[in-house]
Amino acid sequence: MARILVVDDSQVMREMIIACLRGEEGLSFEQAGSGLEAIEMLSLGRYDLVVLDLNMPDIGGVEVVEFIRAQDQLGDLPILIVTTRGDDASRQQVMAAGATRYVTKPFNPEQIIGEVRGLLRSAQPAG
Amino acid sequence: MSAVDLKTFITGYLAEVEEHLRMAERNLLEAERVEAAGGSSARQVRALFRSMHTIKGLSAMVGVEPVVDLAHEMEAALRVADRSGTPLGGAVDLLVRGLRAVEARVRALASGEAVPPAPADLIDALAALGLDRLGAEVGDLGLPEDVRSRLGPGETQELAHGLARGRRAVRVDFVPNPSRAASGLNITAVRERLGRLGDLVKVIPMSVPRSPEAPVGLSFAVLMLTGAADAEIAEAAGMPLDAVSSLVGAQPAAAPAALPPPAEDEEEVELRGEVVRVPVARLDDVLDRLSVLVVSRSRIARAVAELASRGVDVGALSHVVQESTRHLRDLRAAIMRARMVSLAELLERVPLIVRGLSRTVGKEIKLDLDAGRAELDKAVGERLFPAVVHLVRNAVDHAIEPADERERAGKPRAGHIRVACHERGQSQLELQVIDDGRGIDQAALARRAGRDEPRDPEELLALLTEVGLSTRDQATTTSGRGVGMDIVKRVAVDQLGGELMVATERGRGTAFTIRVPLSLTIVDAFCFHSGERTYVVPMSMVDEIVELEPDRVHRPPALAGALVGLLDRRGEAIPVVDLEAWFARRPAGGGGRKAILVRRRGRPLAFTVDRMLGKQEVVVRPLEDPLVRVPGVSGTTDLGDGRPTLVLDFLALGGQVRAAQGGP
Amino acid sequence: MNTLYVLFSVAGTEYVLPAADVVQMESFSGATPVPGTAPFVAGLVQMRGKVVPVVDLRARFGLPAAEPTIDSRVVVVQVGERTVGLLVDSAREVIRLRLEDLESPPDIVAQDGAGFVSSVARAGQRLVMVIDPSKVVGEEQLDG
Q1: The pLDDT value given to residue B8
Q2: DSSP secondary structure letter of residue C33
Q3: Alpha carbon of B357 to those of B17, B352, B469, B477, B484: distances in Å?
Q4: Domain range list for chain B
Q5: Has residue A57 got a pLDDT over 60?
């Protein structure tokens, strides 16, 4: 089972993302309502993928990505950014900080499924 | 392949957006108030930015483009203000317009109407807001480097303002670990607990070397402004005392004059209790399901009766079924309690309404809202709210004089309106709308109505609430349309069984008082027509509504009284009673085409109706006088026509019918 | 001692009630009948927000029934905790009576009146019957 952490301050948003992915096999989900909560959960638990909203209030998505990449054990964690109307500057900034993939809202369910499947496949431990 | 239709999330969307809009309104007004008093609105601006961002994201997912456009512009403007620590100043008006525009579109979506595009002029105006002038220069606060680099100008300014007002800037280092997390002490809980002791400015995650104390190498530095003692803070964070340190020593150089901390702090602290936010629609849903449970219980009762008739010993089972009636009743009461809204929440919108009104009519108004801690059922609150709003609009529109006129009269320039609500004894809620305006001109009112001048407050009230009466000939911009005084009376008095009173004095002001009973019986009920009268029956006692197909109704020749015949249905022979005939104590006529089926002790009985009118929630007022206490009538309700409509108890009626037939 | 009384008429006869017992008087525009009540209970009306039972005095006094007219009035009386409306043919005057004006009712009136009439009074040229509202509405108490 791949454990996915869905991070967004909107409960409806989190539920929407999970609803898109629920039909796929082998996925389990946990939720965090803030970047701080996400950092805490990522430090205390083990996850295979993080879906992260960018502009959350108390700590921006960029800071969260920076923090994650600064942890040795989280260096390879796939990070999928899901955010509204990304402008180039924001996108470049967060990719430079170490995010893996970037999807803008509104998205199709197929997009999310495709991205998640792709990220989990490439993260398969070799051998 | 998943086929998720994101539109199914509309209900949740509407609930979340509604909540964010409310918060945004509150924060916007608070920002204005704080800035006018010389303080920093940084917290409110940040909260506003957050709300608009969330609204934008949700609306994008559900596909409401006009709201996305508006929210995007507002979010962008607020982001700039937040990052640069700039006060909103005059931009508040424009942001209020923006919120209103979003609200209108969300309401349209909620009622299934088309959502109009965002007004171009509003979009342009929002885009042109340049909220990036830096606020007053903030001196060096003497913050340690690892913290200073992580703070934005808005946050630094907030710290500066707080320090100037005599609060302490404190840093709490919270270290999460598995055992703390297992006992519920995570960063979210700690933030909430610390939030009750002061204002959190920022939470900074920090990497620390792994150690037995910090097994996951993570620490959160919580920066806050507070007046609480270190020991209290440490306890709230679940950390030892040395986790708490003063953030800053010296006062900043350029500091605004010391301000008293706003009273809002205490209010917020209290409101942040153990609360779960539930969309009211979900509670209504629960009530619906409860109704289904009640029907199921009747069916179980029937099955038990049938078992008994076959000689099975159903003693214990029957007892359980009886108890379940009580449990269901208690459950309903508990859900109704959960549906209670606090008056304070109900009246939340009033300040914004007053603000808009006072701008429109060009008068200065000072609103005093005293909602206390009273709670009332959501259905009652919904009915009361428009009445309160109308009274307030009346006060702004008619009662309060323009500032110059007030000054000449020796009054303060700003008109004073007070909306106060408190419990009166054990059983009543009293709500008052009081103004210090010009008072009601009773002579003019009487003249316009072609009546005699009222001799006492009761006659004045009767005059005011006469349908169609208004002290202006044509509708003014704000009042005169929509809810009139007559409807205020109809809601408060007729529907809710309360009282409406007025006291007024020329030149001094007017006070309207509404009193409503605190606890009302509100039930879901079917309305129907029978013999040219309208009746209401609680849904909980209705088993089914059945068609009376003529070839399925058998009329044995020896049928007496109001019995129409026996309905053959699903293997049962159901006695059908002509309701009107039963009431009139005359023999049955032809009977209607539909009948309401109830089960009494498992045995079915149907009462004919001429026409079903639908279902609605009604307030049941019990009949108290012995003259009219009869079995079969639980009380009366007002369906909006000002006349009492009987609420029938078909189970009791069924008992009467059977007794009349010599049965059990 | 001088006391105010409300004067009303039912089927041509004039009656009075202590004004102190009268809460309000309204014209009558129909009542919601309640099945199963005594025949003299006309039904329920909503008055100033209260739901009030109405006793048809014609029926109560055993007089022939008649259709209400525009002069018909509901005289709402307060009897202890109870508020009850009395439907009368008309109610226009308020008069003063002195204690001395009140006499015991003659036997035949007392009998026919079934105890409703507490005394008779002379008001100028007229003879009016003084009604005891608590007898009219019945002596049950409100429950609870």
Answers
A1: 67
A2: -
A3: 24, 9, 22, 9, 17
A4: 6-127, 145-251, 280-338, 342-517, 522-660
A5: yes
- Cα–Cα nearest to B141, from B168, B115, B120: B168
| Residue A53 near chain B (CB below 8 Å) | yes
Q: Is the pLDDT of residue B432 over 90?
A: yes
pLDDT of residue B264: 38
| Chains C and B contact (Cβ–Cβ under 8 Å for 3 or more pairs) | yes
Fold of B522-660: OB fold (Dihydrolipoamide Acetyltransferase, E2P) (2.40.50)
- The enclosing H or E element of B416 equals strand B415-424
- Name the CATH topology of B145-251: Alpha-Beta Plaits (3.30.70)
Q: Name which CATH class applies to B6-127.
A: mainly alpha
Nearest Cα neighbor of C31 from C60, C72, C77 is C72
**CATH 3.30.565.10 for domain B342-517:** yes
The answer to whether residue A126 is domain-embedded is no
Distance, in angstroms, between B517 CA and closest chain C CA?
12
C121 alpha-carbon distance from chain centroid = 16
Helix (H) / strand (E) containing B625: none
Question: Does residue C94 belong to the interface with chain B, where contact is any CB pair within 8 Å?
Answer: no
CA–CA gap between residue C108 and residue C130 (Å, rounded):
15
Residue of B nearest to C40 (CA): B627
B138-148 tens-digit pLDDT: 556 677 777 87
The whole-number pLDDT of residue A51 equals 95
Contact of C124 with chain B, judged by CB distance below 8 Å, is answered with: no
Mean pLDDT of A51-57: 81
Contact state of C34 with B646 under an 8 Å Cβ cutoff: yes
- Inter-chain CB proximity A44 and B16 less than 8 Å: no
Report the domain count for chain A: 1
Strand-pairing partners, residue B129, are none
Query: Contact, A5 vs A38, CB < 8 A?
Result: yes
Q: Which residue has the higher pLDDT, B434 or B379?
A: B434
Confidence class of residue B224 from pLDDT cuts 50, 70 and 90? very high
Q: Which helix (H) or strand (E) holds A44?
A: helix A35-44
**C2-137 has CATH 2.40.50.180 classification:** yes
> Any idea which residue has 């909503």 for tokens?
C46
| Residue C124: alpha-carbon gap to chain centroid | 21
**Which residues in chain A have Cβ-Cβ distances shorter than 8 Å to B68?**
84
Name the band, by pLDDT with cuts 50, 70 and 90, for residue B494: confident
Q: What does the domain layout of chain C look like in residue ranges?
A: 2-137
Would an 8 Å CB–CB cutoff place A18 in contact with chain B?
no
Q: List, in sequence order, every residue forming a beta bridge with A30; answer none if it has no partner.
A: A5
Q: Chain B, 476-535: which have a CB under 8 Å from a chain C CB?
A: 489, 492-494, 497-500, 533
Does residue A24 belong to any structural domain of this protein?
A: yes
**Which 3-state string (H, E, C) describes B313-357?**
CCHHHHHHHHHHHHHHHHHHHHHHHHCEEEHHHHHHHHHHHHHHH
Q: What part of C 9-68 touches B (C-beta under 8 Å)?
A: 30, 32, 34-38, 41, 44-46, 48-51, 53, 55
- Among B275, B276, B281, CA closest to B14: B281
| Closest CA in chain B for residue C138 | B627
Whether B526 has a pLDDT exceeding 70, the answer reads yes
Say yes or no: A44 contacts chain B, CB-CB below 8 A. yes
Q: Which residues of B touch C82 (CB under 8 A)?
A: 625-626
Q: Is B343 on the interface with C (CB under 8 A)?
A: no
- Token code pair at residue C107: 């036997």
pLDDT of residue B479: 47
Asked if A15's CB is within 8 angstroms of B4's CB, the reply is no
Query: How many other β-carbons are positioned within 10 Å of the β-carbon of residue B79?
Result: 17
Residues from chain B that touch A113, judged by Cβ atoms under 8 A, are: 2
Interval B340-359: pLDDT, tens: 777 787 788 888 888 888 88
Q: Report the amino acid identity of residue B413.
A: R
Q: Which domain holds residue A85?
A: 2-121
